[in-house]
Amino acid sequence: MERIAIGTVLALVGLVGTAAAQQVSLSVRATTPLTASLDVGGTLANQVQAVGALPTSGSVYAQTPPTPASVLGCRAWFWWNLQPCSAQDPGRAVASCGFAGMLEYNAGAATGSVGAHELVFDVTATAPRSVWLDIDVTAWVVGASAATTWEVDVGDDGSIEAQLGSGHVQVLRNVGVIPLPIRVRCSAAMAVPNPTWSTGASMDGDITIAVTPENRVDIQQTVIGCGALPLVCEPVFAHQGVQLQPVGIGPLAVVVLGLQQQPWVFTNLFGSGCVVMPSLDVLLLVDGPFDLPIPASVRPFTCHAQIVHAMPWFGGYTLATTEAYRIFAH
After folding, report:
1. Domain segments of the chain: what residues?
2. With helix as H, strand as E and coil as C, how does 174-198 read?
3. Torsion, CA 77, CA 78, CA 84, CA 85, rounded to 10
């Protein structure tokens, strides 16, 4: 039975690179004009972004000229940004937007605002899959009367999944080639009757939507490493399994995959006791991130993973270990 299980591990390793990697992508579009506006003692400033597809990052920015009493002038702006998954972070893509502003003036009433406006983040995948949406909403205003609206509508169906005051919200959704729209509604304004350097006003707020894969994998660290090479183990979008990501790697690194915990200890040249946690069922040389796809056909499936590597030591090398992980795919 154990020989069959070891064969399964080797088969999973053999799946790496045999199929086209799945991808998750983000895009953003304005469904109303995006605006930033100021009225500072009768001096007006505004900027408008037209409806339509938006670049990966950008902003609308309004500013009044500096004065002797207001070195920076008054400002209000709205920004957006897309951070796609990358080789350094293959299990996370982030969409975010936010607003900020400051009123500083020596005479006359002043107001600043962004919105009310709406934009939509679209999430697509090359093949159907489940993803987690981790949504965080923040906003604050200092020294002014203000009205702020932040709303996140996942699926653009009229229901509000997150808003100002809701804190951290996690939502599970299915994505595919048809975009999953996430509508964001924003309106923020501040006003003071006579702002000065010491009695001005400021506002700030942002929404962050992190997209991560739901690969039905539980990951538990079982032992710390004895070297300086951290190891990250996380689900990835490319397949339904995990990736081991050593942060920096030496001239020699070996992935140890085991069907069970069978710890053994060695002492390296700088006197540390190093624990190798997995049973020594499969040993593989690696020179970077290591993928372990886990398709539905082999689940439920459990294995243990760790990296043993060479570490510089006084002009030579000694052996060290990374963290070890228990990986359970259900």
Report:
1. 2-20+215-329, 31-213
2. EECCCCEEEEEEEEEEEEECCCCCC
3. 90
